[in-house]
Amino acid sequence: MGHFYHARDAAFEEFYAEKCGFKKNKKKDCICSTICDYLGETVTIRTNAGFVFNNVLVEDFNARTGCVYLVAAGPPATSTVISCHDIENITQVIPTPAPAPVPAP
What is the domain partition of the chain in residue ranges? Predict the structure, then answer.
């Protein structure tokens, strides 16, 4: 599932640098430093201007430019590029796990 937390050790910083193109602890912007956690995930994004992208796939992120590539299913399917600096918040629905089966008496 998308967002996850890790202990801040050297191995994690190297993993993040390889995955996102920068070391997480060097970025100060909340969204720009966590957007890679949502790659391949379906989320809802609200921009600083108040526009809402509902149920979009975070397809790619370019750490050098800050561009986030979003895809929305159609019809018609749309592709959007937005700066991570223009995103106010990201929301992701977390599915509720199924209850454990009750053993038969």
Answer: 10-91
pLDDT tens for the chain, 105 residues long, are 444 444 555 665 666 566 666 555 444 578 888 898 899 999 999 999 999 999 999 999 988 888 999 999 878 999 999 999 999 999 998 888 888 888 887
d(CA 10, CA 65): 25
pTM above 0.90, yes or no: no
3-state secondary structure 62-83: ECCCCEEEEEECCCCCEEEEEE
CATH of 10-91, one of 3.40.47.10, 2.40.280.10, 2.30.30.100, 1.10.3720.10: 2.30.30.100
